[in-house]
Every structure is written in structure tokens, then in C-alpha cells.
């Protein structure tokens, strides 16, 4: 084992690169990647000769790494013969094994999917036996293209560019895009792929049931995401973000029969029930609204928000918004009433 921190960082970096089954590196690539890692952690760069000797060290005792060289895409690449090999493997403690067993029992919706075969192997290795399910997560067994979850999980984890063909509800003709995948997000029992096109940094999302085919492009350089995607979803309901729209302040009233649902499962994280003087002022302004509760939201208008608001029907009224939300809800309620009047 290396005796100084600089060497330890080099060995860890090489171990990760040599076991990467999605990207292949020649010796020059390995040298550059190791120096990138050293610079990032505040250490000085090393010579290519140093990295060459590190590779030789990995093949000797105590590591005994089985390293192969092969031609790929015009380069002479270096990798572990078995991608599952690592010089840093350690045995799991009893507590870690028990925790993994329980965690695996909650991942039933991924069983049988391509690229999730390791779950089955891990269950066998940990002797996880079928037993009565205690926790059941929401899952749509009829979701189209759910088999893509494993493939997309795999390419995101390993930072692989993909060529993706897809179609929209409005146009059944397939389109093609080279895509840098960043995140899989579930909303309303559907899965969405979040990422960026090869020729643009704008974040896009695609529903899995609209994706027809995914082809990994292992030779392409992966473009890292430059923003915190968790923050991206803070101001919206669902997954659709219109970057040219501002956050709206939305005032709503909900009836007594539905206020418990809204209060215990808020439409958005900004949900704020109005009490005290603010509530009394609103009750005098809207005397026709008996009982119920007033609340506010602060979020960006999108289809998911509008659908959520008018799904409560007469039990939820959008009284005011600083943007388009109130008008959009009224428009849809009017259109629904018009269609019912035609029946």
C-alpha cells in the first residue's frame, strides 16, 4: 500500500479508472486524469513515468491486479481484466450487511430490469430471502419503457453520453438527439430523464414513455452538469421549468372538506396557511367563502401546477396571482364547463 497521501490519491484514481467498464483509457489518458485529481486535491503533478511505475506496482504483490492491454478506437488501452476488481475492497460488517438486506427489500420495483441484475446477485450474496413486505412504494406496473430505467441509471452513474430517439404525444415521428444524462426523477408515477443536449447547455427533460431507443456513445466526452439540479426543482411542481418565467405569489382558498388534504400534503414546499390578522382581512374581503382555509404558494407556473390546482374542483379556488396562474386555472375551468354543457 502506498505510504504517502500523494501516492494514495494516485492509486485510488488509477483503481477507479482501470475498473471503469464504460470508458477506456490509454496510458496518456491515465496520466492526465491522475494529475487532474492531484491538482484538484492540492498536490503537485507527477511525471508520466511515475504513473507508469504505479501501474506496474498494482500488478505486483500485495495488489496482484490482473491488468490487460487492448486496442480500442485506435488507442492502446489499459484496464483491469475484471471490471469488478478493486485493490481497496473490504468485507462488510454484520451491521452493514443487515442494513443492505433491509434496503434491498424496498427496491422491488427495480427487480428484473436490465442493468439491475446486480441487485439480484447482491441479494443472493447477502442471502436476502423473500418475506412479507412491510413498506410499499407507489409504482406504476404498466409504465411504458420502464426497462430503460436500468440502462439510464447505468449511463448516468458512469457519465456516458447517449444518442436518444424519442417522440412526442403530438408527433409520433421519432427524433434523435445526442444527450448528456444527469438525473432520473419520478413525478406522478412517471419517470423523467433530466439532462442537456450535446450542442446546448440548457437543461431538458424527457418522459421515459416517450423515449424509443438509447445508444451509449462511449467515445464521446461527457459534459458535466454546471448547476445544482436539486435547486432547479425548488420553485416548481413536477419537472417542467420555464426559465423565462418568474416565481408567482399565489393566493388560494380551500374548503373544509379538502383543507386537511392540502395541509397534510402541500401542493408545493412554499405552502403557507394564513392565520390571524391576514386571515380575518381575507374573510372580510371574500365573505362568500364560508369556512375553509386561505393559503399562499410561491412557485413558477407550469402545466403540473395548474393541473394540481384545478384537480380539487370547486373545493379549491385561486383568488389571485402575480402572474398567469389564476387566469390559467379560470381558463381551464371555463373550458371544462363548456365541454360538459355540450353533452
Task: Looking at this protein, list some descriptive labels.
343 residues, alpha+beta, five-stranded antiparallel β-sheet, four-stranded antiparallel β-sheet, 11 helices, 12 strands
Question: What do you see in this structure?
Answer:
The chain is α+β, with helices and mostly antiparallel strands. 34% of the residues lie in helices and 22% in strands. It has helices at 5-18, 27-40, 48-59, 94-104, 117-125, 148-157, 229-232, 256-264, 276-285, 303-310, 325-341, and strands spanning 25-26, 67-72, 75-80, 161-166, 175-187, 190-197, 203-207, 211-217, 248-254, 272-273, 293-299, 316-321. Strand 6 (190-197) and strand 7 form a beta hairpin. The longest helix has 17 residues, at 325-341. The model has no long low-confidence stretch (mean pLDDT 86).
Summarize the structure.
The chain has helices at 5-18, 27-40, 48-59, 94-104, 117-125, 148-157, 229-232, 256-264, 276-285, 303-310, 325-341, and strands at residues 25-26, 67-72, 75-80, 161-166, 175-187, 190-197, 203-207, 211-217, 248-254, 272-273, 293-299, 316-321.
